[in-house]
């Protein structure tokens, strides 16, 4: 029993030592810095999208998700349908996940078992990724306008409102 225990301890020690030595020789950092949107920036994106749609006489819901796809800001205008909340979230999640406006994905996945059938993915215009220096840091989705094109224009206006700030903060 004592021999098995000491052999096991030696094996585990050897693995640990090898792992530590391997980590030191690697080019991988010990810690990774992750850029995230501040709440105020996410709120500016959402509020600008709402205001842009209001100027066109449309009331919508807007969701801004972080880089993990979690809702950071959710706004629904007074007369926007309840369903628009879920749809705006899915558009934001899809835009963030695919790092692409959702309008460019509408015809991409048409098979019966394609990725378009994944639970949170919605391949409908109105979602836009939020990027800083080429890195995706979130997504914004808008829902409730008579067309996905209008939804997407409002989402793009939201991102445009903070685009310069995001680029400057990246340095």
TrEMBL record:
Record keyword Signal present: yes
Superkingdom classification of source: Bacteria
Keyword match Signal: yes
Endpoints of the signal sequence: 1-23
InterPro entries: GlcG_carb_metab_protein, PduO/GlcC-like, PduO/GlcC-like_sf
Database matches in Gene3D superfamilies: Haem-degrading domain
Database matches in SUPFAM superfamilies: GlcG-like (SSF143744)
UniProt keyword annotations, A-Z: Signal
Protein name (record): Adenosylcobalamin biosynthesis, GlcG-related protein
Gene source species: Marinobacter vulgaris
Lineage of producing organism: Bacteria, Pseudomonadati, Pseudomonadota, Gammaproteobacteria, Pseudomonadales
